[in-house]
Write a structure and sequence with these properties.
- The complex is a heterodimer.
- Chain A is built from eleven helices and ten strands.
- By secondary structure, chain A is α/β, with parallel strands linked by helices.
- In chain A, strands 6-7-8-3-9-10 form a six-stranded mixed β-sheet, sandwiched between helices.
- The longest helix of chain A has 16 residues.
- Chain A is globular.
- By secondary structure, chain B is mainly α.
- Chain B is 76% helix and 1% strand.
- The longest helix of chain B has 27 residues.
- The relative contact order of chain B is 0.18.
- The chains are: A alpha/beta, B mainly alpha.
């Protein structure tokens, strides 16, 4: 992947909420076709970074470029049209809409997504047969794992180029967590979707990721390939308990 | 459906049967329905509780009154001018919408209440609009309950048509998504700011035209009657009672509530607002989805 311009580049990003600064100059590159993991403890700024990349939060300083174009001040709905799609932390489904309606909302973004809506629906229902079986059920009445599947499926309906998954495995049973990781691999390898995800399951995430960043207190403290970080003594000590 | 059409045909025929008290009762039924549809387009679909919705009713009434005063010599039916009242209310919503719809939750409710009170105070201190005396229109319009009644019917059918369209459109899905989770709607690509303002402008129009029609038929408007908080409460209760964000909710809620008001006003005079308050509390506690919501749930269970 050397010599190729990364799909997304984050330069010197500073961001926060009101007076409080959460991110202190974050630099990051998300390679095309890769899985990038963003790791770190609670409060490290992972979700704020995701909010900035997707446009939900405006950075105070710094630049975000996507496919070479500056998107720093673009509103979220414009970024979705470009193919930057966030599956937010805590799933954030539309609880009183049915499974099917949630999926339709995913295709709300662009004319392209709407034109290919039925094709995408079929793909998503093939990928998640459980969603097809429950298409008329209200999203809020499903189990946590099913809700996470639906949240990802809803994101897929927007035809993402860059899929951002914020804590996709949070609060799920270990068996379901593994399913989610398998799904991420599948989406990346079979469907060619570039993926960036934040995770607290550090070991699983590093095994899967092509590249990884470790964040602490709003800064990137370590970065490298998944393999490199797995054998990094500091990561071993702080996150893997070895 | 046939019975509904039959009922409507009968209701439209009321003023031609010669009973003006029945007609004015039905005027009030129609008013409730239209205003419930109006607030439903914003609050029902997006979840933004507008406690100052009456401001559009009032602005519509005043704008219509000014038009009637200025152009009565043209000799056209004065109810035509109520459309200008609706447009004026929409314009006000357009200007106010972008800043005020950034505020969420209870703060939005309080801000809208503040705006409607402020507009009321400004108008009652503007001599050109009659100040605190209000604007008498009797010199320019003749009493014509039939025209008023038919205008209200046209407005109601228009509000129903727009609601039907919104409920099944991409726009309507976007509004519902905003109601359920605005951040999620945003990351799904909904242009939330544009959608909210559009809903606000649309809902303001119907309240504005209704205000204009009532201004003409009563031939006298003042800020006390046309900017009263209790009118907003009536709209909200009618919408909640019928079922928010639904097509038939405002129709059913407006009908039930206006008849309830008619009977309570007769028997317990000014205490009817107390009754409405109790209904609102009971609704929120036990029937948050309103009558239509309950019926829908029943049919879903059956079907």
């Amino acid at each position: 992947m050397t010599g190729q311009e990364p799909m997304m580049r984050v330069d010197g990003l500073e961001a926060g909420y009101g007076e409080v600064t959460v991110l202190w100059g974050v630099d990051m590159e998300i390679e095309r076709g890769a899985v990038t993991a963003i790791l770190g403890p609670n409060g490290a700024g992972k979700t704020t970074l995701m909010r900035c990349i997707s446009g939900l939060s405006r950075p105070k300083k710094g630049r975000i470029t996507f496919d070479g174009a500056d998107v720093t001040t673009l509103s979220p709905h414009h970024r979705v049209k470009l193919g930057i799609v966030l599956v937010p932390e805590g799933r954030r489904l539309f609880p009183d809409m049915t499974v099917h309606e949630n999926l339709l909302m995913g295709a709300h973004s662009s004319a392209e997504a709407r034109a290919k809506m039925y094709e995408n629906l079929e793909m998503v229902y093939n990928l998640f047969p459980v969603l097809k079986a429950r298409r008329r059920q209200l999203a809020g009445t499903m189990s946590g794992g099913e809700q996470q599947m639906l949240a990802i499926a809803r994101g897929l309906m927007a035809r993402p180029k860059l899929l951002l998954l914020d804590e996709p495995s949070a609060g799920l049973a270990p068996k379901i967590v593994l399913q989610i990781f398998d799904l991420v691999k599948l989406l990346n390898k079979e469907y060619g979707i570039t993926i960036a995800l934040t995770e607290q399951h550090v070991e699983n995430a590093l095994r899967m990721a092509d590249a990884a960043y470790v964040m602490e207190n709003g800064r990137v403290t370590l970065s490298g390939s998944g393999k490199e970080l797995l054998s990094n003594p500091k990561v071993k000590e702080s996150y893997l308990g070895l | 459906m046939l019975t509904l059409i039959g009922f409507e045909a009968l209701a439209i025929a009321i003023p031609f049967m010669g009973s003006s008290s029945a007609t004015s009762l039905f005027m009030s039924v129609l008013e409730y329905m239209v205003l419930a549809y109006s607030i439903n387009l914003l609050t029902g679909f997006t979840g933004y509780v507008d406690f100052g919705h009456v401001v559009f009713f009032g602005i519509g009434a005043y704008a219509t009154a000014v038009m009637v005063q200025s152009f009565h010599a043209l000799g056209v039916n004065p109810y035509v001018f109520s459309i200008a009242g609706g447009l004026m209310a929409s314009l006000f919503a357009l200007i106010l919408g972008a800043p005020i719809l950034k505020i969420r939750g209870a703060y939005f409710a309080i801000a809208t209440l503040g705006v409607s009170e402020a507009v009321s105070v400004i108008i009652s201190n503007t001599p050109a609009l009659g100040g605190s005396y209000g604007m008498p229109l009797a010199a320019y319009v003749k009493y014509d309950l039939t025209s008023a009644y038919l205008s209200m019917w046209i407005l109601l059918l228009a509000a129903m048509a727009v609601t039907l369209y919104v409920a099944n459109s991409k726009f309507g899905y976007g509004l519902r998504a905003i109601r359920e989770d605005e951040d999620a709607a945003e990351v799904m690509g909904v242009n939330t700011r544009l959608y909210k303002v559009a809903a606000y402008v649309l809902s303001a129009f119907f309240a504005g035209v209704a205000g204009g029609i009532f201004g003409i038929v009563t031939a006298y408007i003042d800020t006390g009657g046309y900017f009263s908080v209790s009118k907003t409460v009536e709209m909200l209760v009618a919408m909640m009672l019928g079922g928010y964000g639904t097509l038939l909710g405002p129709l059913i809620g407006g009908f039930v509530l206006s008849l309830l008001e008619y009977t309570t006003v007769v028997y317990i005079a000014n205490l009817h607002l107390l009754v409405f308050g109790v209904i609102l509390i009971l609704l929120v506690l036990f029937l948050p989805e309103g009558i239509v919501g309950v019926l829908r749930r029943r049919t879903r269970l059956v079907g």
